[in-house]
Amino acid sequence: MKKLIRALTLPALASALFYSCDKAGGGRQTNANGLQYEFLQDEEGPVAKIGDFITLNFKVSTEKDSILNSTYKNGSPLTTKLFAPGMKGGLEEGLMMMSAGDSAIFLVSSDTLMKGQPASSRPPYFPPGSMVKYTVKMIKVVDSANAEKDQINAISDFGKKKGLNLQKTASGLHYAITAAGSGAKANPGDTIEVHYVGTLLENGKEFDNSRSRNQPFSFPVGMGMVIPGWDEGLQLLPVGSKATLVIPSRLAYGDRGAPGSPIGPNAALVFEVEVLKVKPQKAEKK
């Protein structure tokens, strides 16, 4: 009965009473809002709640298992912030029953998903009365209250593993100068030119590389045109410097991540940077 008991402690689902025990092997169940679910694997641990960061693999299909989308195919689990359910009987209600290690199938009414949409926009593979099938494997649940602490520990572990003497600024930026430069430092408004390689702290996956494009990046530093960790970190480095910047999520893309990129919510980033040039801002004529 663990999923039933824990689900009922969630304020957002206090009114959504589940009809029966939902342990793995218990068969398909239906909650009061019409969400159908079946747990295939049921592990002990805290269930996800609104505001938590969750990492999961999922497959979206028709009831007859025609696959429409799958993170299993591209090998990239989804990390996202769990927001309050936007509709009754939606997938979020199911995710809020899951703890790390759980696997489950959820069936959401296509009529619910299409509510308020013109009939012409309904996909032919989801006729009226059909269900959308989500097969979900919950990989990780990170309590939002502990997310920053977990990142600090991960950054420390990264520095030790790489043999870096990471320095920490007051904002929480971590950096290590790996090759000292002798040129000028950029001041706010100066145009700085850099080469960089960006990777995810969590798994080392590369998401951008100016060197592979042979295209240095130039921008006015300190003007809010890049993430805060870059604006701060690059002003610490004289021309000719090479450094590693380890940027916690709150100084990067925050709890929403960068849509359309591998940078998910709450992602800490690592940049190997080299400062090539600094062009001072032109002084105003008096």
Descriptive notes:
With about 290 residues, the chain is an alpha+beta fold. It folds into 2 domains: about 1-140, Chitinase A, domain 3 (Roll); about 145-280, Chitinase A, domain 3, CATH 3.10.50.40. About 15% of the residues lie in helices and about 30% in strands. The protein is built from 7 helices and 14 strands. The protein has helices at about 1-5, 70-75, 90-95, 110-115, 145-160, 210-215, 230-235; strands spanning about 30, 35-40, 55-60, 65-70, 80, 105-110, 130-140, 165-170, 175-180, 190-200, 205-210, 215-220, 240-245, 270-280. The strands form 2 sheets. Strands 1, 2, 3, 4, 5, 6 and 7 form a 7-stranded antiparallel β-sheet that branches. A hairpin with a 5-residue loop joins strand 8 (about 165-170) and strand 9 (about 175-180). It is elongated, with a radius of gyration of 24 Å. Residues about 1-20 have low confidence and may be disordered.
List keywords for this structure.
286 residues; alpha+beta; Chitinase A, domain 3; 7-stranded antiparallel beta sheet; 17% helix; disordered N terminus
Biggest sheet statistics: 7 strands, antiparallel
Helix content percent band: 10-25%
Task: Estimate the strand proportion.
Answer: 25-35%
| Strand-pairing-aware structural class | alpha+beta
Shape descriptor = elongated
Distance between the termini: 76 Å
Query: Count of DSSP helices?
Result: 7
Task: Kindly provide the radius of gyration, computed on alpha-carbon positions and rounded to a whole number of angstroms.
Answer: 24 Å
Count of domains = 2
CATH A-level architecture of the largest domain: Roll
Unreliable residue stretches = 1-22
Average pLDDT number: 87
**Tally of extended strands?**
14
CATH topology of the largest domain: Chitinase A, domain 3
CATH first level of the largest domain: Alpha Beta
